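User: Predict the full complex structure for these chains.
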Amino acid sequence: MEITQPTLVLNKTVCLRNIELMSEKAKRHGLIFRPHFKTHQSIEVGNWFRNFGVEKITVSSVQMAHYFVKGGWNDITIAFPFNTLQHAQLNEIAALANINIVFDNHVGAEQLKNKLKNEVGVFIKITTGFKRVGIAHNAFSEIDRLLDTISLNPNFKFKGFITHAGHTYQSKSKNEVQNIHFDQLKKMEALKERYRNKYPDLVISTGDTPGCSVSEYFKGTDEIRPGNFVFYDLMQQQIGSCNIDDIAVRLHCPIISKQSYQNEIVIYGGAIHLSKDWITNIDGKPLYGRVVIRKNNEPILLNTNEYLCRLSQEHGVIKVSPNTFNAVEVGDIVEIIPVHSCLTAHAMGRYLTTKEATISMMERF
Amino acid sequence: MEITQPTLVLNKTVCLRNIELMSEKAKRHGLIFRPHFKTHQSIEVGNWFRNFGVEKITVSSVQMAHYFVKGGWNDITIAFPFNTLQHAQLNEIAALANINIVFDNHVGAEQLKNKLKNEVGVFIKITTGFKRVGIAHNAFSEIDRLLDTISLNPNFKFKGFITHAGHTYQSKSKNEVQNIHFDQLKKMEALKERYRNKYPDLVISTGDTPGCSVSEYFKGTDEIRPGNFVFYDLMQQQIGSCNIDDIAVRLHCPIISKQSYQNEIVIYGGAIHLSKDWITNIDGKPLYGRVVIRKNNEPILLNTNEYLCRLSQEHGVIKVSPNTFNAVEVGDIVEIIPVHSCLTAHAMGRYLTTKEATISMMERF
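Assistant: Here is the predicted structure of the two-chain assembly.
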């Protein structure tokens, strides 16, 4: 298939290797592997996980749960403080599959009183330091109050405690990730210890991509839910979760203009394709993507002095050396390695796999 | 219609007023009004322009031109250095409507040799200082070379010079915008003067939203192409192009969590809904949106000390005062005024109008 416009190309070989490595790690440590599907949002990519024994998945919205129920998944955690306004949609999917929802406050849990028609599993969201959502790991009176509310709803089945150590994404080294990961596990282990007599089946669910990628220590958790590892990206590579070669998606973009007076190449490919997430480059400036060009049909990864440095709605600007400037021409295709593959995949809405098939994602919302 | 998940609400009254004011300004100055439709990307919103006499439009991609041709528009400029790999799609739409394309280099123009089946208008892209794409306004040998290439293709009809003073978006005051606007017009006027004998019908096309919004001086241009003004946003309000009340879109989001220990409210509404564009707030930190809450069903615009301060894929975090914290509850809807409405509209893919109809946008790509 000829590429004529911004196209997200998915390297199936790399993607399968990422899935295999993570599922083997989960097996090695006796963990439930419940991968987060919000990164790829695709029934077809989801099916690739089945060969590795995956039966339980994580999603981030009721709509996404609905999409994967249609794709034949039967055990789904919606890992997001439940939006109680969507109780009708929850009833719809909970009639078809085993659904777990998440609460970090008793108000939401109370709002579902008399609203549910089917049993749903409930996890209590805990924060061990990320502090976006979640009850603090040691705020026992809040936890107990929520447990009481849960126990009063006959359609709620308490499953355990869930957390996301999202602060690993701010780490600048594997060591830093390991520290956060270890600290999180210790706190969750103590929580399990406190509540295991009353709830002998309770599950501790953890697992951000950085922690799951760099660590071989998982004592204190029962289940991991990494998502981004399926594709990885430059943010993960900067943290140390992966190498450049582990990144499974690249946005292929036509060159539409060259500005010789400032050695800039302009591509058709902008914020609506890549998203505007960036990392800080070695020169202290925002980097929106790294660049692969072809020279005599050989791929060449440009170094970090030559990078995607500006994005507008549909334009991307690549700063290059005079040599690179002269090596490419208007009408050539360059490949952009994305900073945040979850947002790029969501923005693009479909993939071209390296097996040359176009595969689809869920509809927007 | 009850809102239960992130929903982009379009205030039709405000939007129509924005269209009316800009179309009247164009009439007052005897200008062709060719609004950019990449902001709303909707046939239905596009139709609202027809009552104000608009017959010519601007788009940013061949796909968008195709969508609006299907919507009955017959005079369309694709204001983006033409991506020559899409020549087949260009032939398809140029058979159905009058299409203008843009070049800023002779290489692209040469690549269409023997590729076109129908006449297309051609504008030469000029930069007067923005320096993203375009030939410098005084690089006459480059301009002449491109004019020669254009003249050799019997399906090219040279139309004129087009520019986008995108550097007005970096302005911090109306004065700064006026200066850039005036400078641009002077440069384009000189260009017209130089080439008008050879091309007596040549059109000068300008018109970013800041310049068109703040200025009443348009000598030197024949056509304006603002786009964002249809909705406006916080970026435009910060520049001085509009007031808060002129912003026609708001993202309505449910509250899903409250973090009392840091006075933060968490909404279902993140990067995939709003995009990650931000402006610098008065406290020097990134602001991703301003917030309207309801108190006794009355809308209250929070001040800039209480704002959308962090975004992840689907979460948004609003920093508030203790008073505001206590005035809202999980399950309430808050309204977010977006930083960059073009990207928010694109991300959301449809609108709920205040007349309670859901209206559609073009498909993703």
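The two ends of chain A are 29 Å apart (CA to CA).
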